[in-house]
Write a structure and sequence with these properties.
The complex is a heterodimer of chains A (748) and B (427). By secondary structure, chain A is of the alpha/beta class. Helix content of chain A is 29%, strand content 20%. The longest helix of chain A is centred in the first third of the chain and has 24 residues. Chain B is α/β, with parallel strands linked by helices and 427 residues long. The chains are: A alpha/beta (748), B alpha/beta (427). Chains A and B meet through helix 9, helix 11 and helix 15 of A and helix 1, helix 2, helix 7 and helix 8 of B.
């Protein structure tokens, strides 16, 4: 439509004017960068400088501007021109601050600056200002799956913000586990006594809420579509399946108790006088505040609570984690006995008593009520006459053969998340089957039933992280799952108590509401929230290799009926992994593409092989490695003038063509800087850096094919704090490249 | 005069640490107008002062970078730094808030070029590093500081140095005439996210903090391990700068104690387990850590982190509340007490003692200039009767980062519920 007009603005402030030859920089922008307007300003981020740029946009029709000044991370308020495509040439943090101000460094520093001007011009010419994803859905009804405390809380909180909610519960009643509790651990001061379980109030609020439609005895048969336009089939036990239009989803499917039958050494199943915590709740409900009786009707006069039964297990046989709530639950249950009859002996055997926060007041209250706490490891519970003997290693008295008799033993067994199908395990299975012989062996493992039945290319449920929990394990962003607009809440996400689950559900409702609003506006969700760019594919060039659909960490890409990739823009998080994966390079974003980076790589001036000036390309994760480079500069750490750094959205977005093009055009080395991957991954696109690295491992074959040394490509794991080590690594690599010699590909 | 754009559909967030930033961003990314008020000259709060997070051992500045990018990209948030709420009047959906703005003496012209700092010689305690080092009186608080703008400290105001700093600035960014001002703004709902402060270690008299230089707190230890910290990331003890290779961690320093903080501060066990990694990272097998504990509270999914530390032969666990600390002639702290597992007395000499100091609310609920319900420790409690002021993060409970973010996200929705109601009423 309207004509493009390119401009470059070069700042001579912050010492740039003293350190660099500006006539040369301007000439580069004009002649090589082909910028129609080139202006230098002594203080470009000032009101006058910004007004100058704005005037060119308004009066001269500038549509694309290369701002060659400080880092793209600096002065973002000033250089904010929403309708204009902007690139940033990093002359300050990227050049003069990392170079010594000496006569002998002057020439290479100037070359570095000129290249960054060339790159900024090349990049901006290849960019388009994103217009937003047109494929939006405006539905703003929240689906909550699970009618326990977490699900009911999410539904009510969303309704209070003015949103409609569909709540689906697979059983015949709302309430979940909490409804089975006699009382709950206190959530309010003075934190001294158990309180009402709160379920009746929640259920009444739900029933009174006209915004909330409840489906009982129902499950999710199919979830299709994308944020803002999900079509969810709800299968009712009574027969019919109805389809609801949904904007976003909160999955609050809770937990199951760890199966105490797996703990025969603790007496479960051998005698009815050993129960789990749920069993004790049932006895307490039956007693309803009176003396608690066993299943055989005998009044309990002594009870032992065994903490961490089948939990915190290092052997691999039982649950490796701590379920978090069980210490407080045992304290509460001991109080059931003490409150009804202070004469009952109550002993809690624990290794570490875990009552965080105000739980400490609850713990003290139990001690005041006469509950005995003893540090010990229980080895065995054996039926003994009309009761049980608990054998344990008393860690305080160092008695390995300690034992107590009890009428009743309660095992604190912990939780297993109801998270549906582990899609990563399913994906791995066919590969294992292909190994051969054992494929035929019957697998006894019970197959989990899908919860969401997502009609996604990448599997029917939200990916799990560890031990079946759906937590993304992000510390800063605990809600982010790998499925956009689907958030998990409560104990399905990680072990938690009721108070935390209610807080968690409220937060998940917040994220889901936000996701619906942004989906309606065609904007990305976290972490590139508000980003209007989205991936498009030139399908005529597509070879249907399916790498994009397989690699997308967020399950955004399906296949259409002709087996071409089908992008669901509002599921996309804009990491660019698909673009990096595509071997025929048909996927791009308006403002970030194979070309925006490729053009920068090609723009760099490559000196001939006799110059002794190697060129090293750095492709740096924009969230961690690039800021580390900036901060290294701010702290006065110098590095080689031979490197040219380009920020990338994620290592996962790096297309190998950038590397082969760079090497073919005479670069002497390539450094890839990305985040840690694996179990303790630090990539904010979860899988991006891992996938990027896997792809790069293939680059070494290319190097071999080109007869180049494998050292010409270096993968560096970088953290944002590497402000000292990163410059050192750059310098070591530059020295290494000089040692192995210049690339033979120069000048071709 | 600072101009603030706010209406009774605006959400005011008080506190710019990770909880406040989260609440502000979640609300703003849902399309709400937010004013974010922070008393420091920079955002990020105490998480920005941590070297690594448990359990992934990743760096808090990584998440801060993401949050700052979200913030820079979002036109819905106005940030006020060096700002404190001094008064709140009105009611749900219609608050009037006064905010006191302390001068930075540096305006938005600042390019963070650093020339002013070169012109100044006076040094002041480095607040970002818990005063373990010094900074120039014209300073950028830290490398990730946002706004990325220098601060002129009052210490040099009215001196020739201040004039020298002004003269050194080519951009007219230094404005020594700035005066304290009070702005008034409207808000429909308020999120109170003022975070926590370490319990005053000097109150735990048997541990002699403040008297023995080699007894420090866990938050100070974070700065010693951080490459951005006062020692460039070397763990050196304060008394003589010697490498501290034998480090003791004393759990529940102030927490779980009716003479100090009744509550368990929740994060300190994991923090000490994490900090044993720092000792290992810096000194390898020469680095020895001893954890004195009552219970190790590596709650829920953190258990495997505890298992890994327990498997490290360079880390010793002693179930004991240390009774007292003395100091030998070489300045080494000596921990005295009884190991309750077997009732064995000990007097163990260490290079450095780190007190796992507990958490108390920075601004207790009772100190907030509005009707807010607080528990007896000063943490803000959910109050069904209260309408439009919501606690978030460590202002509400002793929380780790993950849970503080969870709490702040929930608080954002509670605030949105109020302003959406205002919007519906006005529609």
């Amino acid at each position: 439509m309207s004509e493009k007009k390119h401009a470059a603005y070069i700042c001579s402030g912050c010492g740039l004017g003293e350190r660099l030859n500006f006539a040369a920089l301007e000439s580069v922008a004009k002649k090589e960068g082909k910028m129609q307007v080139v202006r230098t300003h002594p203080f470009l981020c000032s009101q006058e400088g910004v007004a100058m740029i704005q005037a060119d946009i308004d009066n001269e029709g500038v549509t694309h501007a290369a701002i060659c000044a400080c880092s793209r991370r600096a002065k973002t308020d000033a250089f904010n021109f929403p309708t204009t495509a902007i690139s940033r040439g990093n002359l300050r943090e990227g050049v003069i601050w990392v170079r010594p101000d000496t006569e002998e460094a002057r020439e290479t520093t100037q070359e570095m600056a000129e290249d960054y001007v060339r790159m900024a011009c090349a990049e901006v010419k290849a960019m388009a200002q994103p217009a937003g994803n047109p494929n939006t859905g405006m539905n703003k009804t929240l689906l909550v799956v699970g009618g326990g405390v977490s699900g009911m809380t999410a539904a009510l909180e969303a309704s209070r913000a003015g949103y409609k909610v569909v709540l689906v519960e697979k059983t015949g009643a709302l309430g979940g586990w909490a409804a089975k509790l006699h009382k709950r651990v206190p959530t309010r001061e003075p934190f001294k006594a158990p309180e009402d379980n709160g379920v009746a109030d929640l259920v009444a609020s739900i029933e009174a809420d006209a915004n909330i439609k409840v489906y009982l005895n129902s499950t999710i048969a199919r979830t299709a579509g994308a944020p803002g336009r999900f079509k969810v089939d709800i299968a009712m036990e009574s027969g019919p399946t109805v389809t609801e239009d949904i904007g976003a989803i909160v999955q609050a499917t809770g937990f199951s108790l760890y199966d105490a039958n797996k703990l025969p050494h603790l007496g479960y199943g051998k005698t009815p006088h050993v129960v789990d915590q749920a069993g004790l709740e049932a006895l307490a409900r039956a007693a309803n505040g009176g003396v608690i009786k066993r299943a055989d009707g005998k009044e309990v006069r002594s009870v032992v609570f065994v903490q961490c039964a089948g939990q915190r297990d290092a052997s691999g046989e039982h649950l490796p984690y701590c379920s978090g709530y069980c210490c407080n639950t045992s304290i509460k249950q001991a109080m059931y006995f003490k409150d009804a009859n202070p004469g009952v002996d109550t002993v809690v055997l624990f290794t570490d008593l875990r009552t965080p926060g105000n739980g400490e007041d609850f713990y003290r209250s139990a001690q005041n009520k006469g509950v005995i706490f003893s540090k010990g490891v229980v080895s065995e519970v054996v039926p003994n006459g009309n009761g049980c003997t608990v054998k344990f290693h008393d860690l305080i008295l160092e008695d390995r053969n300690a034992q107590i008799e009890a009428d009743l033993v309660v095992l604190a067994t912990g939780v297993v998340p109801n998270s549906g199908v582990n899609i990563d395990a399913v994906a791995a299975a066919p590969a294992e089957a292909a190994e051969g012989a054992e494929a035929a062996a019957p697998v006894v493992e019970e197959k989990p039933i899908s919860i969401l039945n997502l009609d996604y290319r990448q599997g029917p449920d939200v990916p799990q992280f560890k031990w079946g929990f759906t937590d993304s394990h992000f510390i800063c962003f605990p809600y982010e799952t790998r499925r956009t607009a689907i958030y998990t809440a409560g104990p399905v996400r990680r072990p938690m108590d009721i108070a935390q689950a209610m807080e968690d559900a409220t937060g998940a409702a917040m994220k889901a509401i936000q996701a619906m609003e942004n989906a309606g506006l065609g904007r990305a969700a976290h972490p590139r929230s508000g980003d209007l760019s989205f991936p498009t594919a030139r399908l005529e060039g597509c070879t249907q290799c399916k790498r994009c659909t397989v690699e997308c960490p967020f399950g955004a890409i399906d296949e259409d009926e002709k087996r071409y990739p089908l992008f669901n823009e509002s599921r996309c998080r804009r990491c660019g992994t698909c673009m990096g994966a595509c071997p025929v390079r048909v996927i791009s974003f308006e403002n970030y593409s194979v070309n925006t980076v490729g053009a920068q790589i090609k723009a760099v001036n490559i000196p001939d092989e006799f110059s002794e000036k190697p060129r090293i390309l750095i492709l740096a994760c924009e969230n961690d490695a690039y800021p580390a480079l900036d901060m290294a500069a701010m702290n006065g750490n110098h590095y080689s003038a031979f490197v040219r750094a380009i920020p990338v959205r994620c290592l996962g977005s790096v297309n190998t063509i950038w590397i082969t093009d760079a090497l073919n055009s005479g670069y002497d080395g390539v450094m890839l800087m990305g985040c840690k991957h694996g179990e303790e991954y630090q990539c904010h696109f979860v899988k991006g850096s891992e996938l990027g690295r896997y792809r790069m491992s293939k680059v070494y074959d290319t190097l071999k094919g080109m007869n180049l040394e494998s050292e010409r490509v270096l993968d560096v794991e970088v953290a944002i704090t590497d402000i000292d080590t990163l410059p050192r690594k750059i310098n070591e690599y530059a020295a290494k490249i000089q040692e192995i010699g210049m690339s033979p590909f120069k000048g071709f | 005069m600072t101009s603030v754009v706010a209406t009774n559909q605006t959400i005011l967030v008080v506190g710019g640490g990770i909880s406040g930033m989260t609440a502000a961003l979640e609300a703003a990314e849902t399309g709400k107008r937010v004013v974010l008020v922070e008393k420091n000259p920079w955002l990020g709060g105490r998480t920005a002062q941590l070297y690594r997070y448990f359990p992934k051992m990743c760096h808090p500045t990584c998440g801060l970078e993401i949050n700052l990018r979200r913030l820079k990209a979002n036109p819905n948030i106005q940030v006020l730094t060096l700002a404190e709420v001094t008064g709140i009047s009105g009611s749900k959906g219609d608050y009037t808030v006064s905010v006191k703005l302390t001068p930075r003496y540096v305006n938005e012209n600042c390019t963070a070029c650093g020339e002013c700092a070169k012109a100044v010689t006076t040094e002041i305690p480095d607040a970002f590093n818990y005063s373990l080092g010094k900074v120039k009186a014209a300073y950028l608080p830290h490398s990730m500081a946002y706004p990325q703008r220098y601060v002129i400290d009052r210490a040099i105001l009215g001196t020739p140095e201040a004039e020298a700093a002004r003269a050194a600035c080519k951009y007219g960014a230094i404005d020594l005439e700035q005066k304290e001002e009070v702005v008034s703004l409207k808000a429909g709902a308020i999120v109170w996210a003022t975070g926590w402060k370490p319990y005053d270690a000097e109150k735990i008299t048997p541990y002699r903090y403040g008297e023995f230089p080699n007894v420090i707190t866990n938050v100070e230890f974070e700065r010693l391990a951080d490459p951005h910290g006062p020692t460039g990331g070397r763990i050196l003890r304060p008394s003589d700068g010697r490498e501290a290779k034998n480090v003791a961690f004393i759990q529940c320093a102030g927490s779980r104690d009716e003479n100090h903080l009744r509550h368990c501060s929740r994060f300190c066990c994991m923090a000490s387990l994490k900090q044993t990694h720092y000792v290992q990272e810096k000194y390898g097998d020469e680095g020895k850590s001893t954890i004195y504990y009552i219970d190790i509270r590596a709650i829920d999914r953190f258990e495997d982190f505890y298992h890994k530390v327990k498997a490290n032969p360079n880390v010793t666990f002693i179930k004991s509340k240390v009774a007292r600390i003395s100091q030998d002639k070489d300045g080494n702290p000596v921990c005295w007490g009884v190991n309750t597992e077997g009732y064995k007395r000990y007097a163990n000499t260490h290079d450095l003692v780190v007190l796992a100091i507990g958490m108390e609310p920075s601004v207790k609920g009772v100190d907030i200039p509005a009707e807010v319900m607080a528990d007896s420790s000063g943490f803000i409690m959910a109050d069904p009767a209260n309408a439009g002021i919501f606690g978030a993060g460590c202002a509400t409970n002793a929380l780790d980062v993950n849970r503080a973010v969870q709490s702040a996200t929930a608080a954002a929705l509670r605030a949105i519920q109020v302003v959406n109601k205002v919007a519906r009423a006005e529609a």
